[in-house]
């Protein structure tokens, strides 16, 4: 490819609305162009990256036995009413009426359509298992689209759906996809982690996220360097402390803590460790009669250590809180604590309530908490002596670095990641809602066991950039770079020798199957180099009159700061060594 | 590919709503599946065809120097307001509001978005010419979607847009695309014609349709077997008759023609040639004052020979009718003719009007027309003697087979076609509306000269089927067949020899790059053959125990009715001869 025949368009400045580096660099490198909030044109330079991502995903999905189809972008609302999602989903679901006033949605995913296909096309267990996937435009009307392709409204997703005859078979389909995802992410050339994720209402452990590691990632990823353990922060278990609760050694004292309404302020004010304080969170669940009318509420007090954070997903699994909960109202708090929020605690309650203590709180002695009175805390609080033992002891906190790994193989570390893939066992959630059955071996209509598997095709390039960039611009891994190698001729307009050498090399590299671009735009060296460093092409060769006189070219990898001289005659062998292409018969 | 791992789903019956053969066969062969009126899922078998069409289009577009990008499906209404299309387009344009109540459209094409890109990215004449294209999902909310993929609501189109600095350059861009389209359509392996089309308001001859020839096509195509001339029926010129008008030889006679209100009935009733009768069509144009209020109307009488049809596009180019016309009202007709429609004619008008005679009518003598009195016609009508010479003489009829070719190289034939591609010179229509300029060599902001170029990616397979099918099903050309060759083993379950031979051949063909499918589903021969004939795979090899004992396989091309025996050892060489694959080094 010659740059003059392609579409190279770079910008010195990032747009004002770009907050994250990938957004800034993709716009500056001319890869995407904003059409509207969260809606982008994929410009030629960016589309090449997206197409390479697609090609890798398609190859590995096919390799894993999945079969590609394409489902419509515009889908009838009546199908979405069968699962209740037409009404249940919020305004993220873009709804539209056709000329006859019939309801449609712009697909955010395709569970309904694919389940509709399965229930009429997959009639017998003999046709199972089957995994159907598409790579297709999706739309989600985000309330606050931002970060460029990271959280757009229109995006491209690969979504796959597996159909199995029973749970055992579904397990195998799930594991097959899990392995396919590892193959896919290995090929992208990015650092990533497959982390266990919470599988919500379905239960079980069959949900994993594929996270591209990046310090700017929105998600906290927990892993154990000494083992294979990895999970997202919602899922990672904080093990029960190994040591028992110490005996009480301090008296209960009501201590003035003027203006100190947070654990951190109290710890600082009293010069004590934050880990000796306890945070109070007050939740409520509504009590309903048989007709579904709300007749009252139950109030819950959750206690986590001052240096820990509550984990909402874990809280949502506690019996009694697992049907949904809310924060308690001021009236409910006043009724039970006799005080307003800020200095609440479990000692001296006005009205009994359910106390849930984190496992770590349950083994504390001589701790500090609010005294249910403004500007006062209790110190020297002890279970059993100053208040009853908790009603529930459970893991309700986020793990922190240094916690024991749940597999007992070491201690946990935490890093940040960007979710770009998710594999998920669905069970019969959709097949039951849509009465999607096949005839089992026993001749009975049986619900499909389903799984779903997504990859954010247009999000992946953004994640790759968050992970791989420097002050000069993007650094693409070879596998998904818009071009693998750029030829930069110096003074091509003036020098026939440079032009000839550049064009000869361009043609030779094309013949080797290298995705090469020759910059024949006539830019000056500085501007030319800056453009390709911004765009992030991994390999660069400079061709100049001075070099040619010494029979030399200059090679520089995007991660290097200095060029190396390469004999012009040996350049193909040198590039093969750099992995730019493989010689036939070479060991891969 | 093994059929058991793919998705093969055939039906004996076509759906009730399928009117045309391509729709019936695509559904029966499991290629598409209806989700809603005019909205289809592209099932795995159909998607393979679509992807092959896309790959050919992409290769040739890139080869022609066009650059691919992807523009959003959901586009902001405000951009469409700049060209006025947001309001001007009817309900075909699917409009939607986002969660904030802002207007969007689901793209039917992308002129607005691409022109918006050009006006900010293409700043200098040095960046021109540039041709940008996408292959993307489109939506057109057809009032009456039908014929499967032929006239769907959601469809995939390749749309390209060229930007040039002046008309001469735009001509070259247009011709480049025209040649690329010829290359593309040649590769599809279909019989097609590139025909001149009317370019509407833009004028000039720069509009061509690419029509796949099919007797079921909606469009009439005019061509000259003795030359390169081809045009659609709207465009094809009927040459002026070579001979002068004969002298009058009959008297004007008012003749009873009871109940004979059409030319055909009159010709039959009077035992005269239809070509001696003249049809009257009464049109009207409104007269407006400066404020645009309608103050009156002009009535026009158009005359074509009884065996000819009026051509609305040609009529719309006559000075005075080129701003729009309508059929005259009954009152207007009564006022000018003193009679109701059915027996109208230009002789003995009550009030003068504009008479437009087709070129053929203008040279007639002794002709027959209505007498402006029910149940009466005039015979022996002659220009000059019985009525004044016409106000306008013009080509206002459709050509018919046997007419002289406009290029003077022979006579015209007419066949039917399906439009699957269109190349069109746009001029500055969109760039002017959106003030899309670049800096020309003279330093002045200058409007882009534009062209647009479409191919109906999902319509093409339907057109291919309309052209190529028989009573057994589809007949794909190799280039776009879902699979090039099917291996049909007989009794693979029982015979290890058949299984081994089938799998060995499957692997050998894969290694040659052949798109092969091995039917390992265990169907009986009759059902298996019927499936693949319905699906339309061009090449079939049958492997049986009986054949293997004689070291033979049976080959049959989809267009043949008998199989031929092929020595098992020679089968690869045989298939290469059939064009199933090319041996390296073979001449292509």
Count of spatially separate domains of chain A: 3
Computed Rg of chain A: 30 Å
Oligomer kind:
homodimer
Tell me the overall shape of chain A: globular
Nearest-integer average pLDDT of chain A: 94
Q: If helices are DSSP runs of H or I spanning 4 or more residues, what is the number of helices of chain A?
A: 16
What is CATH's topology name of the largest domain in chain A? BirA Bifunctional Protein, domain 2
| The top level CATH class name of the largest domain in chain A | Alpha Beta
Find the structural class of chain A using helix and strand composition.
alpha+beta
Q: Any idea what the CATH superfamily of the largest domain in chain A is called? A: Bira Bifunctional Protein, Domain 2
Explain what this protein looks like in three dimensions:
2 copies of one chain form a homodimer. The first copy, chain A, has 3 domains: 3-237 and 414-465, BirA Bifunctional Protein, domain 2, CATH 3.30.930; 253-394, YbaK/aminoacyl-tRNA synthetase-associated domain (YbaK protein), CATH 3.90.960.10; 483-577, Rossmann fold. Chain A is α+β, with helices and mostly antiparallel strands and 588 residues long. The first copy, chain A, is built from 16 helices and 31 strands. In chain A, strands 3, 7, 8, 9, 10, 11, 12, 21 and 24 form a 9-stranded mixed sheet that branches. At the A-B interface, strand 1, strand 2, helix 2, strand 3 and strand 4 of A face strand 1, strand 2, helix 2, strand 3 and strand 4 of B.
């Amino acid at each position: 490819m010659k740059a003059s025949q392609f579409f190279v368009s770079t910008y010195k400045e990032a747009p004002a609305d770009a907050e994250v580096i990938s957004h800034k660099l993709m716009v500056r490198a001319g890869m995407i162009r904003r059409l509207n909030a969260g809606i982008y044109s994929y410009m030629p330079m960016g589309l090449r990256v997206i197409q390479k991502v697609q090609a890798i995903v398609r190859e590995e999905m096919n390799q894993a036995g999945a079969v590609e189809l394409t489902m419509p972008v515009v889908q009838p609302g009546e199908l979405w009413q069968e699962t209740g999602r037409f009404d249940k989903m919020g305004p993220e679901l873009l709804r539209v009426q056709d000329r006859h006033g019939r309801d449609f949605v712009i697909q955010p995913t395709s569970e309904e359509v694919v389940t509709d296909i399965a229930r009429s096309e997959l009639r017998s267990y003999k046709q199972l298992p089957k995994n159907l996937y598409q790579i297709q435009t999706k739309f989600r009307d985000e309330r606050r689209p931002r970060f460029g392709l990271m959280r757009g409204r229109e995006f491209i997703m690969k979504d796959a759906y597996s159909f199995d005859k029973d749970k055992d078979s579904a397990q195998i389909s799930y594991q097959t996809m899990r392995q396919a995802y590892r193959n896919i992410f290995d090929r992208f050339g990015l650092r990533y982690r497959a982390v266990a994720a919470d599988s919500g209402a379905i239960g079980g452990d069959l949900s994993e996220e594929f996270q591209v590691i990046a310090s700017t990632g929105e998600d906290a990823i927990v892993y154990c360097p000494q083992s294979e353990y990895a999970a997202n922060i919602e899922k990672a278990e904080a093990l029960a402390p190994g040591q028992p609760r110490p005996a009480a050694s301090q008296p209960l004292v009501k201590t003035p803590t003027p203006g100190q309404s947070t654990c951190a302020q109290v710890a600082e004010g009293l010069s004590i460790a934050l880990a000796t304080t306890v945070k109070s969170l007050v939740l409520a669940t509504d009590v309903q009669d048989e007709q579904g009318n709300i007749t009252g509420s139950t109030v819950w007090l959750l206690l986590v250590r001052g240096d820990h954070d509550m984990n909402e997903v874990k809280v949502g699994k506690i019996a009694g809180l697992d049907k949904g909960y809310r924060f308690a109202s001021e009236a409910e708090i006043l009724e039970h604590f006799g005080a307003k929020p800020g200095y609440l605690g479990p000692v001296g309650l006005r009205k009994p309530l359910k106390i849930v203590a984190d496992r770590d709180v349950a083994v504390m002695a001589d701790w500090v908490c609010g005294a249910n009175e403004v500007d006062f805390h209790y110190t020297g609080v002890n279970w059993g002596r100053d208040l009853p033992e908790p009603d529930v002891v459970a893991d309700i906190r986020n793990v922190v670095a240094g916690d024991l790994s749940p597999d007992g193989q070491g201690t946990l570390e935490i890093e940040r990641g960007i979710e770009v893939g998710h594999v998920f066992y669905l069970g019969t959630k959709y097949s039951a809602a849509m009465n999607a059955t096949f005839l089992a071996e026993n001749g009975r209509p049986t619900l499909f066991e389903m799984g779903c598997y997504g990859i954010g095709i247009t999000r992946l390039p953004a994640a790759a950039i968050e992970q791989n960039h420097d002050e000069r611009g993007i650094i693409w891994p070879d596998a998904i770079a818009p071009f693998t190698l750029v030829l930069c001729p110096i003074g091509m307009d003036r020098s026939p020798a440079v032009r000839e050498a550049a064009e000869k090399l361009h043609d030779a590299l094309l013949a080797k199957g290298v995705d090469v671009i020759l910059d024949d735009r006539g830019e000056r060296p500085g501007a030319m180099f800056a453009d390709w460093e911004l765009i992030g092409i991994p390999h660069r060769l400079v061709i100049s009159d001075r070099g040619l006189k010494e029979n030399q070219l200059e090679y520089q990898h995007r991660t290097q700061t200095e060029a190396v001289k390469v004999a012009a005659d040996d350049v193909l062998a040198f590039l093969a060594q750099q992995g730019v292409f493989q010689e036939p018969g070479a060991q891969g």
